[in-house]
Every structure is written in structure tokens, then in C-alpha cells.
Amino acid sequence: MFIKEYISDVYRAVSSLLKGMKTTGHYFIRPKEIITQQYPDNRAQMKLPERFRGEVVMSHDDNNEHACTGCTACELACPNATIKIITKFDTTPEGKKKKALDTFVYHLELCTMCNLCVEACPTSAIKMAQTFEHSVYDRNKLLKKLNQPGSKLRAGVE
Amino acid sequence: MFSLEHITNSIQQWLYSTFNPTMALILECTIVMLLAIGLFAVLGLVLVLMERKVAARMQIRLGPNRVGPRGMLQTAADTLKLMMKEGLTPNGADKFLFNLAPFIVMIAAMLILAPIAFAKGFQIWDINIGVLYVSAVSSVSVIGILMAGWASNNKYSLLGAMRSGAQIVSYELSAGLSIISIVVLAGSLQISDIIASQQTGWWLFRGHIPAVIAFVIFIIAVTAETNRAPFDLAEAESELTAGFHTEYSGMKFALFFLAEYINIFIVCAIGATLFLGGWMPLHIGHWEGFNHIMDYIPSSVWFLGKTFFLIFLIMWFRWTFPRLRVDQLLSLEWKYLLPISMFNLLLITLIAIMGWHF
């Protein structure tokens, strides 16, 4: 019984080691599977993973309209005060006052790309972009205004 | 046909006809010394580059590819950097032993080079106890490692050195037993005799399954003896920073690093000599035509090819297997490898006595 266990121990050890060597050998003889990207050289045709998160942007359509209602859900969701929403009051044609977005302030230098603001947004106004070359010489340049000048809320978005 | 034997013979004849015998001998020793040092330098550069490239390919990376064409000059640049660095000696260290240790490790590696046959008739010293000499001298390097660990006056270094000592001493047994099993088959300790005995086929194939088992045990044991992953407990970056060479920097560190790679080359050369026929081309039984074609490939190419195949195998181990714990390391040796290799030696002796091998 003991001998049987001993031999099966040796057999299982050897077969599992060979399995590992098969995997590494598989990669060794297939250089096409190399996933390294030679970044500054291949800047033009670089492939980033789908879920890579570079910075928060607000999408605007052709009429310079966005979907942000100024609800501040993203500001509340942000764990490190990266987002500051400044709201204003618009007057509707009926003469009612309505809360709207004035400035979407985004501190890129504080952002950890956690994606919580994007998940919190009820109208999908903001999303994560894949740009990542953010280095600048002055940190004030990292303070961004996400809504474009003159943009307004898209009709029908509540 | 190209042969190093003619070159060495003609150099020797020219030396003895031009100078008196003493002078000629001194000149010959100088040439051999220069060749050995040159071989060490080239091997260091080539093996480190090979290791990094193999590692990169196995981990789906590119590896060094900036310095020189396809990164070929990377190791040369690294060596230049190491030479420029300051060789620091810690204040509390035993200065003499601390500075001596890397040279002992290096000299031990150099001494094992003596009986290795690099090609047909191209061997520094063909002593009649070649294999015994190799297994004896290879354990001298543990003195250098222990010396480095002790003299550094650092707990990490001492622990690494003690581990290395335990490891080398225990794995020497199974390496020795698997070497002996080939000696039993070949009937001689002399390297040239062992190679000549593989004229009709390599011992790995001729000795049936016991020879294959001896080969596997030999490879495992020498991987442990050269302190390489999965047996790199002497270095153990995660827990001992760098083990016995924690305190070394600059060229003294480079000597340890170089000695590690030289040792890999040497143990693989011994493995190739014992199991794969050294410089002997691949001969299959009585296929005269096939054997004749194989003879056209120079013997040095055969030797280097086999050696680099084994080196690749050991690198493959390093980049695949997880590291062992100290207790696992010792139980692998004393509970598995040693009993198996003793039983295996018995089988091989039986095969040799009964003449069952091909």
C-alpha cells in the first residue's frame, strides 16, 4: 500500500510538472503570441484592451449636446473628490426654472480611474476614454472642464 | 574535414621545435589559460543573454531588444556597467574572506573545466579519474559560498549560505550516484574512455529505462547543485533579498553571477559527456550510411549542441516550475531521489554485469 502511494506520488508530480513544461514550451515555439507592445514605436497602431480606462470624458453629439442633467450622482459616487458639478438654473419656455449643468469640473490629477462615476451616471453622459498620455509640466493643466463651451442638455433627457 | 585536433597538434609541434621544453610548456599553459578565460567571458555573455531571451519567450514577452541588433549587446552593456560600479566592502565584514570568496567560487568553476572534452582530441587534461575529479572539485564551490555568507556579516547572507551548503551537500549524493551508474556501464572513470564507449550509441539510449531515470535524476540534482530555480533557496529573493551575495556589488557580484552561469555550462557539459556521448556524433547501430553522414558534422558542433540543449532544458525548468520550500527540498532529495537512484544503480549494475545493454 505504502509503495503504491509512493509511486503514484512520483507519477502525479512528474505528470503535473510536464504539464507546466508543455505550456511554457507552447509559448516558446510560438513567437506570434507575444503580447508585449513596443509602446513609443507603435503609437499609431497600438491596441489597448477593451476595458482599459484612461480618463473620464463627456460625450457630445453633432449638435453640441450632452446628456448630463447635473444630478451630481457622479460627484457623490467619487471616492476622492475628483468631480465637482457646478449647476445653474435655466428657464424653460413655459417660464419654469430648471436645474441644469453649468460646469463639469474634473480633476484628472486626483482620479484613480475607478469607474464608479460612470456606473453611477443615470443618463450615461460620461464614459471612460482610452487616452493615457496625460503628463504635463503644470498640474493646473490637469484640471479639466468636461462639458464643451456652449453645449446644452439634449432634448428628452431627464 | 575540419578538426581542432590538427590545429592543437601543429601548435604543439611548432612550440616544441622553436623553444626548449620548459618554455614550450609554460607557453602552452598560458595559451590554455587565455582560452579558458576567453571561453568564460564569452559564455557569460551568451548564457545570460540566452537566459533572458528564453525567459521572455516563455512568458510571452520580447526580452532585451534595444542594445545592438535584436538586443545582442545587452549583456555586454550590463558587464560594462558592472565594471564601472564601485566594489563596496561593508564595514563590519571580514575584509579578507569577503574579497576572497568570489575568486574561490570562480576558481572552482575554472578547475572543473580541465577534464572536459570539447571536441575530438581537444581536452585540457585527460586524467584517468576524470569523473571523480569533477564530482570532487564541484563541491569546492560551496566553500566559496559559505565564505561569502559568513564574511558578509549579514543574517540574510549567512542563512542563504547555510541553505546552499545543505543543498549542495545533499544533492551531490544523487548526482554522484547517477554519474556512477554511467561509470558502471562504461567501465572507466576517464572522460575520453567514456566518450569512446559511446561509439555505437549514447548511454541514454543504450542503457534502457534505468539510464533514462539516471539522466532525469542527474538533471534534477545538478539544477539543485548550481542553485538555480526551482532550487534557488540560496538566493531566495523574496525572503533573503539575494542570499549569500546580498552585500556584493560591482565586479565581485559579477564574478558570482558569472560563476553561476559557468557552473551551468559545466554541469551540462558533464551531462552531455556522460549521457549524450560528448563530441561523439549520433550513431545508430549498423546504419553505415547514416553514421557516415553524421560524422561529417564537426565534433565541436556536436558537443556544443548537446550542451546547449541541456542548458535550454535547465532554463525551461527555471521558467516553469514553482520554487520549493527548504523542507520540501530536503525531502525530495532524501525521500525520493536518493532511494530511487540507489535502486536504479542496482538495476544498472545488473544490466552491466549481464551485458543486457545494446
TrEMBL record, chain A:
Gene Ontology, cellular component aspect: membrane
GO molecular function: 4 iron, 4 sulfur cluster binding; metal ion binding; oxidoreductase activity, acting on NAD(P)H; quinone binding
Keyword terms: 4Fe-4S, Cell membrane, Iron, Iron-sulfur, Membrane, Metal-binding, NAD, Quinone, Repeat, Translocase, Ubiquinone
Residues covered by the 4Fe-4S ferredoxin-type domain: 59-88, 102-131
InterPro entries assigned to the protein according to its UniProt record, in alphabetical order: 4Fe4S_Fe-S-bd (IPR017896), 4Fe4S_Fe_S_CS (IPR017900), NADH_quinone_OxRdtase_chainI (IPR010226)
Protein name from the UniProt record: 4Fe-4S dicluster domain-containing protein
Iron in keyword set: yes
Organism field: Niastella caeni
Organism superkingdom: Bacteria
Pfam (any one): Fer4_7
Automatic annotation (TrEMBL), chain B:
GO BP of this protein: aerobic respiration
Listed GO CC annotations: plasma membrane
Record's protein name: NADH-quinone oxidoreductase subunit H
Membrane topology designation: Multi-pass membrane protein
Function: NDH-1 shuttles electrons from NADH, via FMN and iron-sulfur (Fe-S) centers, to quinones in the respiratory chain. The immediate electron acceptor for the enzyme in this species is believed to be ubiquinone. Couples the redox reaction to proton translocation (for every two electrons transferred, four hydrogen ions are translocated across the cytoplasmic membrane), and thus conserves the redox energy in a proton gradient. This subunit may bind ubiquinone.
First-listed, main subcellular location of the protein, grouped into a coarse class: membrane
Species, as recorded: Niastella caeni
Transmembrane segments: 24-49, 96-118, 130-150, 171-191, 203-224, 253-276, 296-316, 336-356
Family that this chain belongs to: Belongs to the complex I subunit 1 family.
Subunit structure and binding partners: NDH-1 is composed of 14 different subunits. Subunits NuoA, H, J, K, L, M, N constitute the membrane sector of the complex.
Reactions listed under catalytic activity: a quinone + NADH + 5 H(+)(in) = a quinol + NAD(+) + 4 H(+)(out)
Enzyme Commission number(s) of this protein: 7.1.1.-
